[in-house]
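re the bet — no i am not wrong, look at it urself. input seq straight from the record:
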Amino acid sequence: MSTYRPTRRTFLAASAAAAAGLAAGGRVRAAGARLRYEKQPDDGRIAWFEGDDPVLTYNHADRLPAGVPERYRRACYCHPVHTPDGTVLTDDFPKDHYHHRGIFWSWPRMKARGKTVQTWHLEGIHQTHRKWLKRLVGPEAGHMDVVNEWRLDDGTVVGTETIRTTIHPAEGPGRAVDFDLEFEAVGGPVELLGAGGKGYGGFCFRFAPRKGTVITTDAGVQAKDSNNGRFAWADLSARFAGRETMSGAAVFVHPATPPDRRPRGWTIRHYGFLGPNWPHLEPFTLEPGAPVTLRYRVVLHRGDAGEGKVAEAYEEYVRNAKGVS
C-alpha cells in the first residue's frame, strides 16, 4: 500500500456526527480520523485540523492586509496550507506578486460580455462566495464543497465555479488534498486564455519564503524556470521558516483528464510557484450549460520529493484514478 492511500477509518455514528458538526459550526472529531473544521472568529474563513494539527484554511470572504492596494482585495482560495508537521508552505500577498494567493485558480486573460477582464490581477472581475454545498467529516476524509460566482465590477454574474475539496488524513510523510474544479459560464460565453507568450493560468500554488529550493517533476530535477514543460506532476521542496529540514508540496494532474483539458505546459518558478497551465496559449470558451471540470491532487509532505515519496504517491494515484466527466 502506498504511503498516501488512506486506510479505512472506523466511525461511531459517522453520518449523524458529521451532520451535527455542520449545524454546530463544524467542530467534529470522529474516532480514528480526527479531522475537523472550525469557523474562524472573523467568519470569513474555515480552518481544517487533524486533531490539533492545522491542515489548511479556506478564505471565503475578502482578504486585504493593511498597506496593500485595494485592487488586490480577493476571496475564494486556500491559505495557509501546512505539512503534517505544521510547516506553512503557502504565501499570500507576497510583495513581488501581490495577486498570488496560496492555492488558487485564476486566469490572466478572460473575455465576458464584450469586456476584457481577469481574475489573475483582479481587473474588472472577482470571485465571490455564493453558497456552501458541503462541510463535513466522512468515513475516510474531510469534505468541503462550495459554489462561487464570477462577478463583473457592475455586479453582473458571468460564471460559476464549484470547488470540491477532499482532505485526507496524514499518512507516513505526507497528506493528500484533492481539488475538483468545475467552471461554467452564465448568461453568455466566457473565454479563458493563459498569459501571452507564457501561458500561465489555471490551478496555482504559491510557496512561502524558504531556502534551498529544489523543483522535481516526473522528468527529473528542473534546474531552470520554464513555461512549456509537459509533466504529470511537479514538486517544490525547500527549507521553510528557517528550519534545517526540507518540506514541500507536489501538484498532480488527474491521470484520467481528457487531452483537451490536460496542461499544455507548466509554469515552474524557483521564486516559489507551480502551475499546470490550462488552456495555456490557445483560448477555451466556456458555454452556459456545459461545465468543464479540472482535477488535481496536492501532496503536502515532509522531506524532499524523494523522502516524501512523491513518485510513489503518484503511481498509487494512477492506480486508483477514476474518470473525469
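see?? The two ends are 27 Å apart (CA to CA). told u. also The CA atoms of residues 227 and 303 lie 26 Å apart. so pay up
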